[in-house]
Amino acid sequence: MDTEGKGWTVVQRNSYNTEITWKEPWSTYKYGFGNVQQDYWPGNEYLSLLTRQNTYKVRFVVEDKSNNTRYAEYDIFSVEDEPSGYPLRLGRYSGDGEDYLTTYHSGLEGIHDNMKFNTTDKDQDQTSGNCASSYGG
User: Fold this and answer.
1) Quick one: which of 51, 60, 73, 90 could link to 78 by a disulfide (CB 3.0–4.6 Å)?
2) DSSP category for residue 53
3) Is 90 among the domain residues?
4) Minimal CA–CA distance to 118: which of 137, 101, 99?
5) Is residue 79 part of a domain?
6) In sequence order, what E strands does 30-131 have?
7) Percent of the chain beyond pLDDT 90?
8) How is residue 56 annotated by DSSP?
9) Which domain holds residue 43?
10) pLDDT in tens, 35-89
11) Does residue 86 lie in a domain region?
12) CB within 8 Å of 44: residues ≥ 6 apart
């Protein structure tokens, strides 16, 4: 993906009209699913291996139904290994979208940074229910 003259590796694509529910079990999220030409998840194991190699940035690009595009960028991005629960690690935020990952937003049940990955069959979040059962991993 070319954005602002920089090359990016797309690590997830999730379109508005996707057929993917994202309510997959741990083993499916571990090795990935979907179609890289459409909507997909590359796999937590591969993200962990990739992000161990160097220091990376991540950019979340979101387009709404009206074709308005916003982004949130973090100057550090990594996913730890499976024994740790694949926790997400993010650095400083910049962008023109909301920072929904490293700051607290009431009603969204906390912060995603430094949290373990959660799936329908492996509840590792800090809420009383399993969020992945409602929203996906």
Assistant:
1) 51
2) S
3) yes
4) 137
5) yes
6) 33-34, 40-41, 56-63, 69-79, 88-90, 93-95
7) 45
8) E
9) 22-135
10) 888 888 999 999 999 999 999 999 988 888 898 999 999 999 999 999 999 999 9
11) yes
12) 29, 30, 79, 82, 86, 117
